[in-house]
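Protein modeling request. Please complete all fields; requests missing the sequence field cannot be processed.
Requester role: graduate student
Desired output: 3D structure, token encoding
Chains: 1
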Amino acid sequence: GIQVLDHAYGDHFHSEPLKVLYIVGKDSKFQNLVSTLKCKGYSISTGSNCIVSHIKNSVEADGRKRPAVSMIDKDHISTAELEEYEVVIVPDFIISMKNYVEILTSMARHTVSGILHSFFTKDDAAHAGQMIEILEQCGQVVPDALRDLCHTSPMLE
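Delivered output (157 residues):
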């Protein structure tokens, strides 16, 4: 998830900073992610309903602003103003398919260029087929790695 953020920042050359939302679980990885992002110079806002405009952006030597990074718990997706974000990152497969549909449709209603990044592992392979179907229904590109994961996973009964 951090590499995705760094890549998005590196490719972004507008005067306004990117608005990035991480959807995380309540495990210890959450605190590690916050610490790592702060060490890399990103400003972080956490809470059940983060408001992007209140985050103080870090400014680079060349005048570019680092993305405003908000984090919410997966249980608060319905309270997030997803239309405010250009990039949404789900670092672990921690949410339901219903939540993915909610995120994708909300982003699609409000932005043409919004991007959702989610990470699947072999442990999540049983859900790959559903995710492919959702992405296709939303007109999104389905990564080859996700298709491969679907073909190698045992079918759900």
